[in-house]
Amino acid sequence: MKTNMKIRNRIAGACLLLGGLVGCSEEFLDRPPLDAIVDANFYKTDDQILAASAPLYNIVWFAYNDKASHGIGDARGGILTSGSYQLENVRFNTTGETPENGAAWRAFYNVVAQSNSLINNINQFVGEDVTERIKNHGLAEGRFMRGLAYSYLVQNWGPVPIITNNTALLQDTTIARNTEESVWQFIIKDFRYAAENLPESAVMPGRLTKWSAEGMLAKMYVTKAGVSGTRNQSDLDSAAYFAKSVIDNSGAELVAEYEDLFKTQNNGNEETLAALQWVYNAGQAGQWGAQNSVQAFLAFGSEITGFGDGWGGDIGASKWMLDMYDDLVFDKRRKATFMFPGDHYPYITQVPPGGSAQQLRVPARSLDGARPYNSRAWVKKYVVGRPEDNDGKVVQQGTEINTYILRLADVYLTYAEAVLDKNPAEALKYVNLVRARAGVNELTAVTWEDIFEERIKEFAMEGQAWYEFTKLEYYDPAKAYSMLEEQDRGTFRIYADQIPDPTIWEIEIPADDTSPRFFPVSEANFKIPIPSSELARAPNLRKPAVPYDFTAGN
């Protein structure tokens, strides 16, 4: 354990240094500082292999998880709205200078760089005492995370460079973007390798398994199915095969209560198939980036974080999002995802200004005559509360709540989408399993729209909504653009019938509300532009994309 912590800390420093280099170098992606993790004396034991892959579960993803995940995944996807924060993403005006754009690009290529270093260094330096099982495990972890990073890259920016050797990149001035078809082929190859080489049971708590990779393969195949412009049935069949394998063989189960998924004490629950593992460190000394920072930006105020953060008072659910719920009271996902005035969360402590500690009862900040209301449905998901609510393990801008990469409900809905045309009864079965957990009535028949809406409700504020639209845009761009243009992203009021203990809420748009509500979407602003700073450093990114040479290596 001492060795693992030492190596983890040194890798953290290397990754933080990489972030600085990417911001000031002449190339858009540099070789990461290799430090001890590429020392020829390292990679000599199973423990060292596992220590070397540990950063792939947290710090290299930090810049995306921090703000870009909800800025791109939820704000662009129509889940999140705001009067100021993330406004370029909310209004579909993401530019080359939008902060979340650059942060996401750099984070994904940091993941690629760290994954490549792990893969290449294991192949080069692995010692004879390393078991074949752990060697392949380390390689598979690298390829899983690299494939995941590329799935985000291609869906956000289209053709992007495929890089497998960061050292060679330093001498290569001809690096170019690769076609979307090439990138998707590369992604599938990485996840297939991971599925073939990861174990059925995790080697350590929180580590990837065969089921993590097969579940992601199912998701990747469902998206790849539309890349050619029409949905490829063979890809859908592959998605169904891998999803059903996970359902039947992984042993994963839905957590009984949806709200429990987002409590720190339930990290690593029975529904989790893959997650980023954030690690508590008191004071964050030397560990910035190793903890989950999202509560700082999503919580409505410092009274529920215990520190000077909690800057989310001006953000919340869009009206389009709230209109998705079958029922604002009985759909358990609403309260677990968004706070309404008067909502009661007994497991979060609230210390109002000048007041004493109490269980959180969401305040109504305004009155319309005798009617209490809020102008935001504040974010609840990934807001876990103060230190006293989490065994002391909360610091300013840092919690240790896991970030889901994949959970079983996702596999259920992926399977339903994959089999919908061939076996609608089977699709209906798995959609209804998700709905039953949410506390809403079963459907008697299921359509693509039903599955789409179920995914929006189930994964709101998990950074997924935008990727539902990128998936659709591949094979039906007109529908994707139309759906996005019809989303009501404007302001509104949420009225509670009484405070405390409301029993019903009403959502109304004031007669004098002139805020913009709908925004144009087309091919011109659907994909995110490559960050301007990267285009300036790497002019080849402006050139037409070329197919990737799959004979070149990993």
From TrEMBL:
Top-level division of the source organism's lineage: Bacteria
SUPFAM superfamilies linked to this entry: TPR-like
Residues covered by the SusD-like N-terminal domain: 97-221
Domain RagB/SusD residue range list: 314-542
Keywords: Cell outer membrane, Membrane, Signal
Locations listed in the record: Cell outer membrane
Statement: the UniProt record of this protein carries the keyword Membrane: yes
Cited InterPro entries: SusD-like_N (IPR033985), SusD_RagB_dom (IPR012944), TPR-like_helical_dom_sf (IPR011990)
Family: Belongs to the SusD family.
Name under which the protein is recorded: RagB/SusD family nutrient uptake outer membrane protein
Gene source species: Algoriphagus aestuariicola
